[in-house]
Amino acid sequence: MTLIKAAAIQVQKDKEVKKNFKRIEKLIERAISKNSDIICLPEYFSMDSNFLKTLDENKEDTLSFLKDISQKYGIIILGNVLEEIEERYYNIAYIYEKGSLIGKQVKIHPTRGERALGITPGREINAFESSIGRIGVLVCADVLYPEMCRILGLMNIDIVLNPVVSFYRDTDPTKDARRALYISRAYDNSYYIIKAGGIGKSITGLKIVGRSLIVAPWGILKYSTDENKEEVVTADLDIDLLKEIRKENYSLTDRVPEAYKLLIKQTDIIK
């Protein structure tokens, strides 16, 4: 039996990025005290409302932080940055293991708010090899698109890292549906999902809540006890058990791709 300890860091954002790094490292130390092997940080964890003016500096500081943390504690860690490439902005998640970059994933489905800021969709879905298994990334809203989630399943991904921003609502009628969505994604595609959300204010100044969780194909393993407080959400992931379950998942093994032609067309919803 191969057990992996996973952690989602639910952290309060600070206006000063360097203070945020110190705050996050304290939470990471709590995760390390629980023997965590892989850690997911929230989307935009190191960015504030002035992000467009400090992109290069923020990227350098953030990636240096991720690299140093992964090396210092001997772990795998994911965090994201905004990058300007050929006059276009991209939301990119970076994964480091023990001080080395093992891969990066561009967000495929920026939200409408992100697109209004000029953030461009990615065009490639990647799988990353690590010492604990094969890793995939769904950056925030990417998890809402079953096509992308299925592709990761077809890549034999073991662990999906899902950094998110979740906006506060006075009433939340979708709470149960949202949790069911995560179970469905994990169940359909036979992988674990680590979702990490921040709390406080988004880069556009709106209130955000955590809603961090870790889910397996058979259900939620752990979720945050309070979506408005800092927390380290941890759970054990059994990789050997996951691989056995994947062998029996006939929605992966018995597909009929010839019948799915409409999925690869950019079209309006059929009425």
Automatic annotation (TrEMBL):
<dbReference type="Pfam" id="PF00795">
    <property type="entry name" value="CN_hydrolase"/>
</dbReference>
<dbReference type="InterPro" id="IPR036526">
    <property type="entry name" value="C-N_Hydrolase_sf"/>
</dbReference>
<keyword id="KW-0378">Hydrolase</keyword>
<feature type="domain" description="CN hydrolase">
    <location>
        <begin position="4"/>
        <end position="239"/>
    </location>
</feature>
<protein>
    <submittedName>
        <fullName>Carbon-nitrogen hydrolase family protein</fullName>
    </submittedName>
</protein>
<dbReference type="InterPro" id="IPR003010">
    <property type="entry name" value="C-N_Hydrolase"/>
</dbReference>
<dbReference type="InterPro" id="IPR050345">
    <property type="entry name" value="Aliph_Amidase/BUP"/>
</dbReference>
<dbReference type="GO" id="GO:0016811">
    <property type="term" value="F:hydrolase activity, acting on carbon-nitrogen (but not peptide) bonds, in linear amides"/>
</dbReference>
